[in-house]
Amino acid sequence: MNRRVTVFGSRSLALAAVVVLSACGGSSGSSTSSTDSVSTTEVAIDTPVYPLLGTPIEDAAATSRPAMVVKIDNHPSARPQAGINQADIIFEENVEKLTRYAAVFHSEGSDPVGPIRSGRFQDINLLGSLNKPLFVWSGGNSKVSAAIGKSDLVDLSYSKANTDGGFKRSDEYRAPHNLFAETTKLWTLAPAGSSAPQTQFTYRTVSDANASTSKEAIGLKVSMDGVKVQWDWDATTKEWVRTQDGTIVVDTADIALSVPNVVVLEVEYTNTYSPTSKTLGTGKAYVFTNGAVYEGTWSRSDRLKPFELKDSAGGIIKLTPGQTFVEVSRAGKTAVVSPGMTQDEVKFP
User: Fold this and answer.
1) Burial level of 246, CB count in 10 A (0-12/13-18/19+)?
2) What is the DSSP letter of 36?
3) What is the C-alpha separation between 261 and 142, in angstroms, rounded?
4) Would you tell me how many other CB atoms lie within 10 Å of the CB of residue 74?
5) Which of 176, 228, 304, 324 could join 261 in a cystine, given CB atoms 3.0 to 4.6 angstroms apart?
6) In 3-state terms, the chain is what percent helix, strand and coil (to 5)?
């Protein structure tokens, strides 16, 4: 799968005929966005889709394999990372004065993937809705290791899946930011009876237009711990392009990280050296999709259930089929860049 191809591009798909998309958007409501005027194509509504993307299934093996979560380092010495453009969903978490990615793979993998780093207590709740995902990490302290071992995350740490998982150290990176593995090998270690993840988001279809609760946006800024994150809307590709600390983020193939959807979940973090996000309950949410932003809420009563995203009118927010990047941020750390403004005019909160 070429993730750089726009989701509503003209790829030939044998699963269903394509139909002309005359309206694009979010939750139910009247259309407000000028982006709807672009005519593109979308597969028929009854086509089987990947649960974490909402795009047509191209690899039949994905219908039964489990989700795989890889903890990817975001330290400056770990960049560029491998696999960030192949993940279906990426969560960015605050850790110790920096951030770390929890990259979720299902529709496709990445050989290699990494650099791989340690897990945290917060991963257990954050990832619970993925239906017992394979959890790929370098290891952790005894308390974290014990907690993950008792959870329903399938422990594929370096110590448990070293050779069989394709773990190896790269000479091109400095330790400890140099551990990589191979998703192809890691998937062979899935326990018997493993199954695909449930759908995490609601996606728009051919009849959906941007709701009246949305506003046009050309970008956003998020102050994560130790990282200044910026996303810019590219109207040509219809994706948001990530900049980090003033530099466009690229993978090991020098391809920019850009996604159709950016979701910001404002959560409470414990005030400890190793912060832990509280991802049960409710809080403010921003959803950036199709050149627009929805300001609403997230709610979640059970770690086994996905986040529910609602707009200001209480309607379910619908994302664009394709990759989603989720910023698990602290409250009050997001700024929207609206049309007529420039990124330089908007300060990081």
Assistant:
1) exposed
2) G
3) 36
4) 23
5) 324
6) 10, 35, 55
* CATH level 3 topology of 202-345: YerB-like fold (3.50.90)
Q: Supply angle C-alpha 304, 151, 265, rounded to 5.
A: 45
CB 108 within 8 A of CB 174: no
The string of DSSP letters for 150-192 reads: HSSSEEEEHHHHTTTTT-EE-TTS-TTS-EEB-HHHHHTTPPT
Other CB atoms within 10 Å distance of the CB of residue 124: 20
Closest CA to 215 of 294, 312, 314: 294
Contacts of 191 (CB under 8 A, 6+ apart): 154
Average pLDDT on 194-218 reads 93
What pTM did the predictor assign?
0.89
Range list of H helices, the chain: 122-126, 142-150, 158-161, 183-187
pLDDT of residue 44: 53
Domain positions in the chain are 62-187, 202-345
Q: What is the pLDDT of residues 325-337, one digit of tens each?
A: 999 999 999 999 9
Secondary structure (3-state) at 335: strand
* In contact, 106 and 127? CB cutoff 8 Å: no
Give the right CATH number for 62-187 from 1.10.3210.10, 3.20.20.20, 3.40.30.10, 3.50.90.10.
3.50.90.10
62-187 and 202-345, same CATH topology: yes
